[in-house]
Amino acid sequence: MPTFSAPDGTQLAYRVIGNGDPVVCLPGGPTDSRYLGDLGGLSTHRKLIVLDLRGTGGSAIPDDTSSYRCDRLVDDVEALREHLGLRAMDLLGHSAGTNIATQYAARYPNNVSKLALIGPGTRAVGIAITGEMRRELAQLRKNEPWFPAAFAALEAITEGTGSDWEAITPFFCGRWDATAQKHHAAGRPSNKEAVTLFAAEGAFDPQTTRAALADCTVPVLLLAGEFDLNSPPQSAAEFAALFLDATLVVQPGAGHYPWLDDADQFVATTAAFLG
Description:
35% of the residues lie in helices and 16% in strands. The protein is of the alpha/beta class. Helix 2 (97-107) packs across helix 7 (206-213) and helix 3 (131-138) packs antiparallel against helix 4. It is globular, with a radius of gyration of 18 Å. It is built from 10 helices and 8 strands. The longest helix has 15 residues, at 70-84. The protein has an 8-stranded mixed beta sheet with strand order 1-2-4-3-5-6-7-8, sandwiched between helices. It has one domain (3-126, 193-274): Rossmann fold.
């Protein structure tokens, strides 16, 4: 894997998949970026530059673990852009990675040509996802065989009487089949410290980020899965309203990994946006 040096000297790795104009991809988690695969075949349209966030995949564990904080990861993205020699880049983030991408666009708007936020996390802009919102969305799956146990676990988590996050995993997938189960198992974060410190105090400044986005003219795609309990379409719509030039797409039948649920639809939407 190719590597480059972050501003603090940490060696970071990235994968290059496909051909064409590059798009820099930021995974969620933070976890090993391999769960993104080739984003359902998006690599047939664009060259994917997939970053392993510090402390994950092929990237080194930093000496200063406070650098796992989301706002500080923005510096790594800028270092990657400079390493690649790109004047401005198309930037794609998934899940928690969209918080990095959003803060990057707020800080470096002239260095982003297009911004794609997939299953967008909303912490960077302070949009709350309520328990009621998740309950309502979960009810769309009431005919699934796994629903009773998963919904009971969701209720317990929402009410603060339970913490079985594993039990609600089916709600994050458009289809809870063997492929989805295998993908979930492979994508579990291995660096728990990186996950914990990602949202440490100071990681997000929603008021400042929102103010910067209000003047950001970068075209933005927000793609949400119809069934995504992690990033509900309602929160994605509220997020989209913060940008001057935003396109909101809700992919039917999809969960938090829309390229897994319907690769053709996901690629068609994302490739058309990126151009």
